[in-house]
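Researcher: We're teaching a course module on how sequence relates to structure. For the next exercise, students receive a sequence and then see the predicted structure as tokens, so they can try to spot secondary structure elements on their own. Here is the exercise chain.
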Amino acid sequence: MTDIKTLCGHVALIGLPNAGKSTLLNTILGTKVSIVSRKPQTTRFQVIGIHIEENSQIIFLDTPGLFQAKSPFEKSILQTAWHAVHNCSFVALLVDVQEGFSSRMKQLISTLKERKVEIIVVLNKIDLIAKPKLLNIAKEFHETNIVKDIFMVSALNNDGVSDFVTYIRVRLPESPWIYEHDKITNLPQRLIASEITREKLFRTLNKELPYELMVDTARWEETLNKNIKIYQTIYVRRDSQKAIILGKNGQAIKKVGKMAREELTEMFQKKIHLFLHVKTDKIWHEKPHIFNSGHGFYSNE
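Model: And here is the predicted structure for the students to work with:
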């Protein structure tokens, strides 16, 4: 009997903020591993999604959006994205076709040229523009001379996504698999829980919500009857931001907690008890680790 050869490789998903990288990754995997929001820089760290098909394992890296970093916090986010670019077999540049070949995109292409990075262009949200304009955008990218191939997809509608995945799969190098067969992401459950709550904050409060917040899962307790108690701290930098998250009579945080608890219950298939606490810390973004005493948590139940 001949052993089946296994294929394995890494794909960096890069792009400007809001290009749809997280949506594409979730669609490829058929489950949520990366949170989605209309707010820029939603993804703050490298999220790995593992797609297995037949004898192949594709390891997708959903990276933070590439932007002009100013603060040390933003520079740390950006460093994560560029690290992925230089350590993957494939680099897929996701493009929101509504922005197209804009001045920001030209600047990014120039940087990729300087770094000698060849890319696969994935034109996303193709259902939102006319075909002649779409073809013109594809032509502009092709003329940059760093593009291996171009795909046109709607990540949200799962249109054209399988063609992109197949393209990668048949070009993977022969290699042992890096992750086990049943693993789909590198994120621990505590971090997934934090990200789910952060997503609900973005979606519920939208433009009112300050970008500079963090959700930390301070405690995770599994009870004897297999329920899970999750205690989370929402860090903001100003008291006025804390008031926004709490809302009048605590209504805003109640809504966020309810939405997060429902999704976590479905995700982990266990009863979730979620306790949220909002804390002001002017320099939370400068601390590598944030600890909480575990007191003052708000239950959404």
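Model: If you want an answer key for the exercise: The helical segments are 21-29, 72-85, 103-114, 131-142, 161-169, 189-205, 239-246, 251-268. Strands lie at 7-15, 47-53, 56-62, 90-96, 119-124, 147-152, 214-222, 228-236, 272-280, 298-299.
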